[in-house]
Amino acid sequence: MRIIKLDEVDSTNEYCKRHCGGGDMIVTALRQTAGKGTKGRSFSSEYGGLYISVIKHYSDFLAVDAFKIMVNACVAVCKTVESFGLNPIIRWANDVLVNDKKICGTLIENTFSGSYISRSIVGMGINVNNTLPEELRPIATSMSSQLGSQLDLFSVRDTLVKNLNKNYTVSDYKKYINWFGNEVLLKTAKGDITVTAVDIAPDGGLLCVAAGSVKKISSAEVSLRL
Fold first, then answer.
1. Is 195 helix (H, G, I), strand (E, B) or coil?
2. Buried/exposed 125-157: b ≥16 CB within 10 Å, e otherwise
3. For the segment 113-164, what is each residue's pLDDT rounded down to a tens digit?
């Protein structure tokens, strides 16, 4: 797969949209001037972090299997962070935490054609050596702050690219979840709900016990707080 390495860009996801020409590629940048998070939020993307997007085109990828794209991205990030001596945990559906603080965010933008996915763009931002804004420090962390020393950013990048070229399963994804059986807070549009998380369904839904019965929650409905 073609790899584009940039110094600065508005957003690696947006670069993919503008320049893919119908082909698959990986785009990395040392800094983003307009990094994007989920639900339109801005994403701090200063020098020292790793910002990367993967664009792939499909001919027969069923939309009901969309969770496989998220699985591959999250597990690749976890294996990368883990290989540098950290213990990552996935916070459903697509955040990676270390010591209860977010170390990586993932933004997936799929294009649909009927019941199929024709294109996916997976953007990832890993905090490696970057200094986080003051307001994010209570909830976010970086690899270097956790390890107490700076890392070789390009070594982290190359490890992630290698891991992204592998295929993972939902079972691999669940290996990075340590909160099954615990009470979790679901922040919904109708208010906060405390439930017991029990499993992840094959389609990515969160299986939880609420009011004495098992329910499946979609990531579009809630924001999980551990």
1. strand
2. bbbbbbebeeeeeeebbbbbbbeeeebebeebb
3. 999 999 999 999 999 999 998 998 999 999 999 999 999 999 999 999 999 9
Tell how many helices (H) and how many strands (E) occur in the chain: 5, 12
Q: Kindly state the helix (H) or strand (E) to which residue 214 belongs, with its residue range.
A: strand 213-217
Q: What is the largest CA-CA distance in the chain?
A: 53
Counted residue by residue, the chain has a size of 226
d(CA 104, CA 110): 20
Place of tokens 């029990």: 198
Helices (H), ranges, the chain: 12-19, 67-83, 143-147, 153-164, 170-174
